């Protein structure tokens, strides 16, 4: 929508409404669907194919389809909120979204696999709680803006509970940073979105401390690791830097007023595209493309970083 593709955004909202119509008492919205909305996405290995530079195995589908990732409700409601600013959503969609929020109200305090799908025991991830705040914050704003029927006071209280959980339980004062989950000492680049979703002021001391720690420990020559590999997450120490996180880093630096640094990181990131300007999920130690290709999440973050950096440079 930032780029003016209102028709495509409208089609996506129609797609979202159809997914909300398919929920049942036993199962709420899933974390992923096939492009045509199919809920059955078995992970299959295609033995007869090889990937980039001979990489194997080549897979279709995704076993994470059955995971719980609480953050998707925040992503969902933020998308609807942004769309509604240009095109009012329907009452039917609003009714279905309100039911999704009823589910979230009952389950948001439960542990999940998190946005990074970490292999291991479920945790109450900081990012999931952060996006829970986004879900209820956007819902109450949308209800008030449109005068839509809603338990606004309940949503306000739930947003406050999620906000306090992040601030009281997910900030490590000794470390001087928000951590991956309560009790953890692990930095997590997903908290870079705090000022982007307006949870935190971009110059809030807690956020600036976290931004500095991420710069010291997760950034390598302007490229950002999503978190420090510990050996307990099913990965080895060869994971590349995460392009999504690198563009989040640009956005966070821009919001914090560090425009010169943000521009340097952004322009350096542009040198890592392939010959048609696309990114994989990760960048390897020799600059090679690793992981899913092309990755939509990365390119959405690229657009956001470019737009916000451009505005900041215009102001300067």
Helix content: 40-55%
Residue stretches low in confidence (pLDDT < 50, at least 5 long) are none
In this structure, how is the largest beta sheet organized? 3 strands, antiparallel
Q: Judging from the principal axes of the Cα atoms, what is the shape?
A: globular
Query: What is the C-alpha radius of gyration, as a whole number of Å?
Result: 20 Å
Q: What is the CATH class of the largest domain?
A: Mainly Alpha
Counting structural domains, the number is: 2
User: What's the architecture of the largest domain in CATH terms?
Assistant: Alpha/alpha barrel
Order of helices and strands: HEEHHHHEEHEEEHHEEH
User: How many helix segments?
Assistant: 9
Q: Write down the CATH topology of the largest domain.
A: Glycosyltransferase
First CA to last CA: what distance?
Answer: 25 Å
The averaged pLDDT comes out at 91
Strand order of the biggest β-sheet: 7-8-9
Extended strand count? 9
Binned strand content: 5-15%
SS-derived structural category: mainly alpha
Question: Helices and strands in order, then pairings?
Answer:
Blueprint (H helix, E strand, L loop, with lengths): L5 H16 L22 E2 L13 E2 L11 H13 L6 H17 L18 H21 L5 H18 L1 E2 L4 E2 L26 H13 L1 E2 L2 E2 L16 E2 H13 L3 H12 L11 E2 L5 E2 L5 H20 L1
Antiparallel strand pairs: 1-2, 3-4, 5-6, 7-8, 8-9
Helix pairs in contact: 2-4, 4-5, 7-8, 7-9, 8-9
Descriptive account of the structure:
With 316 residues, the chain is mainly alpha-helical. It has two domains: 1-31 and 67-169, no CATH class; 172-316, Alpha/alpha barrel (Glycosyltransferase). It has nine helices and nine strands. The protein has helices spanning 6-21, 72-84, 91-107, 126-146, 152-169, 205-217, 243-255, 259-270, 296-315, and strands at residues 44-45, 59-60, 171-172, 177-178, 219-220, 223-224, 241-242, 282-283, 289-290. The strands form four sheets. It has a three-stranded antiparallel β-sheet. A two-stranded antiparallel ribbon has the order 1-2. It has a two-stranded antiparallel sheet with strand order 3-4. A hairpin with a 5-residue loop joins strand 8 and strand 9. The chain is globular, with a radius of gyration of 20 Å. The mean pLDDT is 91.
